[in-house]
C-alpha cells in the first residue's frame, strides 16, 4: 500500500539531490519552469530505485542548451528535433525536454512534433496516468492532472486520455501496458484492456525493432508472466509472437497431456527463480528467459494422437528451434541471442535420457561439448522444465540432475572439460602421418576428438599410437 506521507518525503529527498538542485537553480535563474517527470516521480512515490532523471520545461531546445552548458561536463542534442537535450550534470546523465503537444496521423508512430506551453497539457499526452506526474522544482510542487496518485494507490494502469485515442496515437503503448503491469504488479483498467482488444491489429505500424525492445523489457521484469497473460488474453501477442497462444492445445477426454501454454509459463517462472538462486544479483538473462518461454513451441506442429489416448510430440525440440530462429529473425534479434535461444531449445530434452539410465563418462563429455557456452543456461532450463505434480518423480529428476552436475564438475576438475580438444594438434597430425594440410587432417582430428571424449586423457604417446593404428586401418 502506498504511504503518501513517506512518498512525499522521498520526493523531497529527490529534489535535494545534487543534479536536481543544480538544474532547478539554473532554470529558475533563467526564468523558466523545470520539473522532474514520469518514471522518477512514480518510482520515488512507490519506494522503488530511481535510476535516471527526466525533466520537462517550457524552455525551447536552444534555451535548454544555453542553460545546461555552464553546469554540465557534456551535452548532446541528438533529440533536438523532438525538443530533447541531453547533458551530464553533477555526474548524472539527464534529459531535458520542452513541453510537447504532438499530434499523430494514425498511419505511423511518428508524431508531428509541436511544442506546448503548459505542463498539464504535456502530461495529458503521456502513456499512463502513473507516468504522467511531475515534481516542479525548486518549489517541490507535485503536479498530477490525470489522477496518477490515485491509480498508484489502487495499483491500476490507465491512460490519461480515452485509451482508444491514446493507443490509436501510438500502438506501442499497448505493449507498454503489459510491461508496466509486470514491472509494477498493477492491474490494467478494464476499459484499457478493451481498447487493446479492439486496436490490436494497429500494432502492424510499429517496427519489429520497437516490438522486440518492449518484449525484452517485459522479460527483464521480475514477473513477466503477468504481462504475457495480458498479451495472450487480449490477442495482442498474435501480432508478433503467435507461437505462444498456439500452445493452448485442445485437450479432449480421450487424449490427455499437459496444458502446454500453462506449462511454458510455469517453466519461465521457475527459470527466473533458479536464476536468482544460482546467480544472485545478476542482470536478467534475456536469452535464457526467451528459451524458457519458447522451448515447447514445436509441440503444436508435432502433436500426434495415438490409439489408446496417448499423445506424442516427437522431435518438437528440433522443430521448435527452427520456429524460434525464424520468429527471432523477424523481430530483428541479434545473431548471438538467436543462436543461444535456438541452441537451448534444441538441446532442452537431452538430459531426460540421463534420468532414464546411467550415462558413461563419454556421454557426459559429449553433453558438455554440445552445450558449449550455453551449459549453465541449459542446467537452469532443464531443471525449470520439470513441472510435474508427482512429488516422487520431481525429486527423482532433481536428484538425477544434481548427479550429472556433480559428474561434470568432477570431470572438469580432472580434464579441464570446458576446453576439450585432442591431445595432438593439426601440425603434429601431419608430422605423425606424413601428410599435407587437407581433408585427411580434419578426419584425423575428429578421430582424436572422439577418442578424447570416449576415453579421456590417455597421453600424447598413446594418442599418437592410436592415430597410427587408425590411419593404417583406414588406408587398408
UniProtKB/TrEMBL annotation:
Residues 256-399 form the HD/PDEase domain. Its cofactor is Mg(2+). Pfam families: HD, PolyA_pol, PolyA_pol_RNAbd. CDD domains: HDc, NT_ClassII-CCAase. Its EC number is 2.7.7.72. Keywords: Magnesium, Metal-binding, Nucleotide-binding, Nucleotidyltransferase, Transferase, tRNA processing. One of its GO terms (molecular function) is CCA tRNA nucleotidyltransferase activity. Gene3D superfamilies: Beta Polymerase, domain 2, cca-adding enzyme, domain 2. This is CCA tRNA nucleotidyltransferase. It comes from Microbacterium koreense.
Amino acid at each position: 500500500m502506498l504511504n503518501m506521507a513517506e512518498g512525499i518525503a522521498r520526493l523531497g529527498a529527490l529534489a535535494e539531490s545534487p543534479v536536481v538542485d543544480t538544474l532547478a537553480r539554473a532554470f529558475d535563474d533563467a526564468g523558466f519552469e523545470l520539473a522532474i517527470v514520469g518514471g522518477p516521480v512514480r518510482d520515488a512515490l512507490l519506494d522503488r530505485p530511481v535510476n535516471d532523471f527526466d525533466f520537462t520545461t517550457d524552455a525551447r531546445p536552444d534555451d535548454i542548451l544555453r542553460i545546461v552548458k555552464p553546469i554540465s561536463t557534456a551535452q548532446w542534442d541528438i533529440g533536438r528535433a523532438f525538443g530533447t537535450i541531453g547533458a551530464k550534470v553533477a555526474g548524472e546523465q539527464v534529459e531535458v525536454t520542452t513541453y510537447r503537444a504532438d499530434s499523430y496521423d494514425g498511419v505511423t508512430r511518428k508524431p508531428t512534433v509541436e511544442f506546448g506551453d503548459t505542463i498539464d497539457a504535456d502530461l495529458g499526452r503521456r502513456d499512463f496516468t502513473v507516468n504522467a506526474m511531475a515534481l516542479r522544482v525548486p518549489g517541490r510542487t507535485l503536479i498530477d492532472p490525470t489522477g496518477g496518485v490515485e491509480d498508484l494507490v489502487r495499483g491500476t494502469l490507465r491512460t490519461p486520455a480515452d485509451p482508444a485515442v491514446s493507443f490509436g496515437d501510438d500502438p506501442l503503448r499497448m505493449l507498454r501496458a503489459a510491461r508496466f503491469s509486470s514491472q509494477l504488479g498493477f492491474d490494467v483498467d478494464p476499459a484499457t484492456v478493451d481498447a487493446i482488444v479492439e486496436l490490436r491489429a494497429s500494432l502492424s505500424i510499429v517496427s519489429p525493432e520497437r516490438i522486440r525492445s518492449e518484449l525484452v523489457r517485459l522479460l527483464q521484469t521480475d514477473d513477466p508472466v503477468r504481462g504475457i497473460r495480458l498479451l495472450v488474453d487480449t490477442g495482442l501477442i498474435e501480432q508478433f509472437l503467435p507461437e505462444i497462444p498456439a500452445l493452448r492445445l485442445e485437450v479432449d477426454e480421450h487424449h490427455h497431456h499437459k496444458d502446454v501454454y500453462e506449462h511454458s509459463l510455469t517453466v519461465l517462472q521457475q527459470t527466473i527463480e533458479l536464476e536468482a538462486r544460482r546467480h544472485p544479483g545478476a542482470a536478467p538473462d534475456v536469452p535464457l528467459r526467451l528459451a524458457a518461454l519458447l522451448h515447447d513451441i514445436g509441440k503444436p506442429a508435432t502433436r500426434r494422437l495415438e490409439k489408446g489416448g496417448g499423445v506424442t510430440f516427437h522431435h518438437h525440440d528440433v522443430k521448435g528451434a527452427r520456429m524460434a530462429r525464424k520468429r527471432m529473425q523477424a523481430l530483428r534479434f541479434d545473431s548471438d541471442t538467436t543462436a543461444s535461444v535456438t541452441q537451448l531449445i534444441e538441446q532442452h530434452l537431452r538430459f531426460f535420457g540421463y534420468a532414464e539410465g546411467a550415462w558413461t563418462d563419454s556421454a557426459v563429455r559429449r553433453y558438455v561439448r554440445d552445450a558449449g557456452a550455453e551449459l549453465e543456461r541449459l542446467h537452469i532450463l532443464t531443471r525449470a522444465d520439470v513441472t510435474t505434480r508427482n512429488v516422487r518423480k520431481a525429486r527423482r529428476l532433481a536428484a538425477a540432475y544434481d548427479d550429472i552436475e556433480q559428474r561434470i564438475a568432477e570431470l572438469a576438475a580432472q580434464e579441464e572439460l570446458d576446453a576439450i580438444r585432442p591431445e595432438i594438434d593439426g601440425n603434429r597430425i601431419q608430422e605423425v602421418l606424413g601428410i599435407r594440410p587437407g581433408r585427411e587432417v580434419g578426419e584425423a582430428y575428429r578421430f582424436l576428438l572422439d577418442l578424447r571424449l570416449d576415453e579421456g586423457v590417455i597421453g600424447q604417446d598413446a594418442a599418437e599410437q592410436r592415430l597410427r593404428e587408425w590411419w593404417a586401418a583406414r588406408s587398408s
